[in-house]
Write a structure and sequence with these properties.
Elements (H helix, E strand, L loop, with lengths): L1 E4 L5 E4 L5 H8 L1 H6 L2 E4 L2 E3 L9 E6 L4 H22 L4 E2 L4 E2 L2 E7 L10 H13 L5 E4 L2 H7 L4 H8 L7 E5 L2 E4 L13 E11 L8 E10 L2 H16 L2 H7 L3 E2 L10 E2 L1 H20 L3 E2 L5 E3 H7 L1 H5 L7 E2 L6 E4 L4 H8 L11 E10 L15 E11 L4 H18 L5 E7 L12 H17 L4 E5 L8 E7 L5 E10 L1 H5 L4 E2 L5 E2 L2 E6 L4 H12 L12 E5 L5 H13 L4 E4 L5 H10 L4 E5 L1 H6 L2 E5 L4 E5 L1 H15 L5
Bound molecules: zinc ion (2 copies).
Length: 645
């Protein structure tokens, strides 16, 4: 008999060689129906693998990430089989499961695969899946493995790097692949497939190697789930911030300037300025002081901070002065600069907390393949601040930062969010900087603060940075995607490295604790997420133009300008469309540009000194005075944009 421990802590005895599927059946028939993958003593195994020793067993269904991984990994095998059958002579390389679906990198030789072939491939996959073929693992000697793949230089290379005795193959139907395991029981569970795209990919990600074709796909246990997923993709495409940024003329990129370095256009710059002003105003009330630091610093600063050791080789390389041969680096973080600001004068406990804020632009090297619109860039501006406080102040400072973050989210219409508290791995205290008491205090302060604020949170052990625990905010956008936004981190490391001190009430020198925080994260990433969340229909207080005045014909140009003046006096951002075009066309364009209010002016409006107002999306608000309209705009803004505290 062997003893199997289940996730709820219960221990059950079973005959040796029992399989995870047998265990599931012994628990309930329903569970057995839904189990698609398992892990034993922290390694992924097949649901049919006989268990021979005592250990912990976890059973996974489609609802678990591990279950999805096995589902998509198995689907990649089916894709590979379909491609081999449809395109004889192709060479398979690798095909992993990814966050959403799976891919397979294939050398198609002279053959070409394009979108028009997708349906054919999907049909083949379905045909294979319906055979309900079991996935079966077997061990293979290195010699046999090499001989099976003698015509495939890619698999040969993979096998050459494996040790004899560790090589396994997976068989299903008539198909075999080199594989480490982790499958669903059989292909019959795969009910719906979609080939999503093809793209070029270099073998082993190295551009010196041959370019292969990466075939992306996704699969689901129900057709309905696939349909829903495809609808979500369609919606996401419409909301892609790169598309919206171009349409709304917010930002652009230039090859001459460099990849990953966004250029903000006038409307985008104005949008950023409004966001910055909004946060600056709230920060001022919360007791922050603005500072400004340069974009470069001497190597020595980053040696002291530890960033050089950590990122020096893998980041932008240094800049040298021609005569003095000084060595500078582009700023990857604002924190070291702020530590030096703290050091510029001595503080006593009565001066703390000190809260230094800066919209600081930083530069971090990202490989060109990793760059993506505004979410992965090489230069970006953090809404950064560092709070230097005593340990006793940590609790209240943390709560204050949470208030600020919640204020920011609320003012921008992010309502659906969760938080994650990342704490130490309690079993390995030596991994962390700073004394145990300090950590206990900081972790308690964070948990207290999130509990006190009634936030929905999870605690993740072993997720803290080596220098301190942290709190991350995750936001769900309008179509259910999760994004990580603001972060608050406690830091015991930098105060130590920079030898920061304050004089306590005991007249002795003490170390302050440092809090890093950025409610937006970065201006670039935040604006990207905001665009995708709102589909470009930004909150009224933030949008570049709140209203557009559309004259029915040239005859009403002067009245249109007069209305513009009145709106501007009421602090409404507006513009006039006096072009010699039909009102219908002007409305369509204003709709495209996502301008919240359209104001039509013609003969009647001029005669009565009124305006005709239409809401973006088509709602007709009718005839009204400019004052009444201004009131509507103010009310709408005040509904979401409140005063901080
Ligand atoms: Zn496999
Ligand atoms: Zn920092």
């Amino acid at each position: 008999m062997i003893k199997i421990t289940l996730p709820d802590g219960s221990v059950k005895s079973f005959k040796k060689d029992i399989t995870p599927m047998d265990v599931a059946e012994s628990i309930s028939e329903g569970l057995a129906r839904n189990v698609i993958s398992a892990s034993f003593n922290d390694s992924t195994i097949e649901t049919s693998t006989p268990l021979t020793i005592d250990g912990s067993l976890i059973l996974y269904t489609w609802k678990n990430d591990e279950g999805k991984k096995a589902f998509w990994h198995s689907s990649a095998h089916v894709l590979a089989q379909a491609l081999e059958e449809l395109y004889p002579g192709v060479k398979l390389t690798i095909g992993p499961a990814i966050e959403n679906g799976f891919y397979y990198d294939v050398d198609f030789g002279e053959q070409v695969v394009s979108e028009k072939d997708f349906k054919n491939i999907e049909d083949k996959m379905i045909e294979i899946a319906r055979g309900k073929h079991e996935f079966k693992m077997r061990s293979v000697s290195k010699r046999d493995a090499l001989s099976l793949y003698k015509d495939n230089e890619y698999k040969t290379e993979l096998i050459e790097n494996l040790e004899d005795g560790t090589i396994t193959f997976c068989d299903h139907s008539t198909f075999t692949d080199l594989c480490l395991g982790g499958h669903i029981p059989n292909t019959g569970i795969l009910k719906a497939f979609k080939v999503l795209s093809v793209a070029g990919a270099y073998w082993r990600g190295d551009e010196k190697n041959k370019q292969l074709t990466r075939v992306y796909g996704i699969s689901f246990p129900k057709q309905k789930e696939l349909t829903e997923y495809l609808q979500l993709l369609e919606e996401a495409k419409k909301r892609d911030h790169r598309k919206l940024g171009k349409e709304l003329e917010l930002f652009t990129f230039s090859h001459k300037v460099g990849q990953g370095l966004p250029l903000w256009l006038p409307k985008g710059a104005a949008l950023r300025e409004r966001l910055e002003d909004f946060l600056k105003k709230a920060q001022k009330k919360a007791g922050y002081e603005m500072v400004i630091t340069p974009h470069i610093a001497q190597k020595e600063l980053y040696v002291t901070s530890g960033h050089y050791e950590k990122y020096g080789k893998d980041s932008f390389q240094s800049i040298h002065t021609p005569k003095e041969d000084e060595e500078f680096f582009l700023k990857p973080m604002n924190c070291p600069h702020h530590c030096e600001i703290y050091k510029s004068k001595p503080f006593s406990y009565r001066d703390l907390p000190k809260r230094f804020a800066e919209f600081g632009t930083v530069y971090r090297y990202e490989q060109s393949g990793e760059l993506h619109g505004l979410t992965r860039v090489r230069g970006f501006t953090q809404d950064d601040a560092h709070i230097f406080c005593t340990e006793d102040q940590l609790d209240s400072e943390f709560k204050n930062v949470i208030d600020l973050v919640l204020y920011v989210f609320g003012s921008l219409g992010f309502e659906n969010f969760t938080t994650q508290v990342s704490i130490r791995d309690s079993k390995n205290p030596e991994k962390y900087m700073g004394d145990v008491k300090g950590w206990e205090k900081a972790e308690k302060a964070i948990i207290n603060a999130v509990t006190d604020k009634g936030l929905n949170f999870v605690i993740e052990e072993d997720e803290a940075a080596f220098y301190g625990p942290k709190l991350d905010f995750m936001v769900k956008d309008a179509i259910g995607r999760q994004w990580q936004l603001g972060t608050i981190q406690v830091d015991y490391n930098l105060p130590e490295r920079f030898d920061l001190t304050y004089k306590g009430s005991d007249n002795e020198l003490h170390r302050p604790v440092m809090i890093h925080r950025a409610p937006f994260g970065s201006m670039e990433r935040f604006i990207a997420i905001l665009l995708e969340h709102t589909g470009g229909n930004l909150p009224l207080w933030l949008v570049p133009e709140q209203a557009i005045i559309l004259s029915i014909s040239e005859k009403f140009e002067i009245y249109a300008e007069k209305v513009l003046n009145l709106l501007e006096n009421n602090e409404i951002r507006a513009l006039v469309d006096n072009r010699n075009e039909t009102v219908g066309k002007k409305i369509r364009e204003a709709e495209m540009n996502k301008i919240p209010y359209m104001i039509v002016v013609g003969e009647n409006e001029e005669k009565e000194s009124v305006i005709n107002v239409r809401r973006h999306g088509g709602e007709d608000l009718g005839i009204m005075s400019v004052d009444k309209f201004s009131g509507i705009v103010k009310t709408e803004i005040n509904k979401i944009l409140k005063q901080f505290k």
